[in-house]
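sanity check this chain:
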Amino acid sequence: MEKRIKDRGGKLKYINCIVGASGSGKSSLLEQLVTPVLISHTTREKRKNEVEGEDYYFVSEKEFKKLNFIEKVTFAGRRYGLSHKEVHDKLKNNKEVTVIVDIEGYKQLKELYKDQVVIMFYIDSSPWQCFKRMYKDRGFISAAKRVIRDMYKGVWSNKYKADIVIENDNFNVALQQLERYIG
């Protein structure tokens, strides 16, 4: 797998899909990579440290309904989606792009971009580690709900479907592993 992924000299484009449980470190790892990132749209409010067009495209519910999405989900009453235009525009100008999606988003990208290489990187971290990471920022109840939801949905079993599993017990080691493939 590593040789196939590292061989980027041909005409194929690469869509790197980062998948994992809430709190596994997906966003933190992606922030450190040097790669064009696919940005999703959301109807939720912007958090204080987020930047429009870097973290998300923040839109109203009305605007969201007008967009054409590859995949969309509703979480905690807010909508999130990856638009066809975002993927098309970024792939037009780049050899590889990276995106955080759930397993359904990965499947949709794999189906729609059969002529390209769509790779699933699963960021693996124990439920306890995920809880501890989220607890700092979101509090006990929110962190517990997310871990329980992910356990119920079987999110940790997605690692068996991944092309590459990155263990995130140590952030720097996980980042080095991802950098072997992305960027």
Remarks:
- Residues 1-7 have pLDDT under 50 and may be disordered.
- The CA atoms of residues 25 and 108 lie 23 Å apart.
- DSSP finds seven helices and eight strands in the chain.
